[in-house]
């Protein structure tokens, strides 16, 4: 399953949990699972609310008043090790423990960078309370319950203004939140209240494979998680969309044993380059393939002022455009890349072994209602040619001939 967070009004830990509850996670099941943390003195609640006329669920974690003798200034302080210990000692599933701890580790890293101290020296204040631990673990539990394997999100709106915290008055977004939003697409909001909390930003930064438009999916459920305030104007809600990945290869023509035409979607990444040594392109192409590119092309073009240049064009699966785009920015002289989704028609394909008088080689076979096409693997043909002292062209031609004669 795929989850897509539409963060039109920001994101926080309780909004994430509320959205998942609205999308179908049973509240009683969630309560039973959270009891495995062995945290005491809290009460969970969920209620149906409306924000801007749209219904959603508000998730509550109620805690008793803090004892000022046991906390600093009435604020609970826990270190990363304290929180990790609470989660590790629980009887939660392994995947839920690992994800929850990873989120807190990401939070600790952001706080450490802000305060210029070591991760182990960080004292969690607001995010060290029972409510924040519950929010993060509950969000992790919800992913597990809904069997979500991929998470994506929209760009994140950030507000401006001042917020009060245990450190005093801080600018919005809070410094730790800004650290957590590195490499995440953000946009400015006119809102002066807090839109993105550290827990919300940390959870997204850990689980999201990509940010941007809605990913293709067969939509199965929608949930709305409500924030604390009922803002005027934009509803204070987080929307989560739950769906199944579309079939990778839905057949357009059923060709039976002869195969057929298939359709799928891929991402195209492109960059125009006119100031780089040609020797670099081969290295970049190898790196792109090593990192998972489906195909890489170098297209000669004429650019402004008549300068000859090259378009580096990369095909990849959805969700890989960010990492492969960053690779282009790192390994080439380009200062920008573009990417877009495109549909393609393709023939059904497979890899088979072909026996020739020189030896066995692999061949990629494309099957269609109009006939099958075989392309022997170059590296296999090269090795056989070198071993047998035969011309490479003879090995290649022999492999195609044997395939055609023996293909069923």
Descriptive overview:
- The structure is a single chain.
- This protein is of the alpha+beta class.
- It has helices spanning 13-23, 27-34, 80-88, 94-115, 130-145, 175-180, 198-207, 279-290, 321-331, 378-388, 392-406, and strands at residues 2-6, 43-51, 54-62, 78-79, 123-124, 150-153, 156-158, 162-165, 168-171, 186-188, 208-211, 218-226, 237-244, 261-273, 295-302, 308-316, 338-355, 360-367, 373-376.
- Strands 15-16-14-17-18-19 form a six-stranded antiparallel beta sheet, with helices on both faces.
- Helix 1 (13-23) packs across helix 7 (198-207), helix 3 runs antiparallel to helix 4 and helix 8 runs antiparallel to helix 9 (321-331).
- The longest helix has 22 residues, at 94-115.
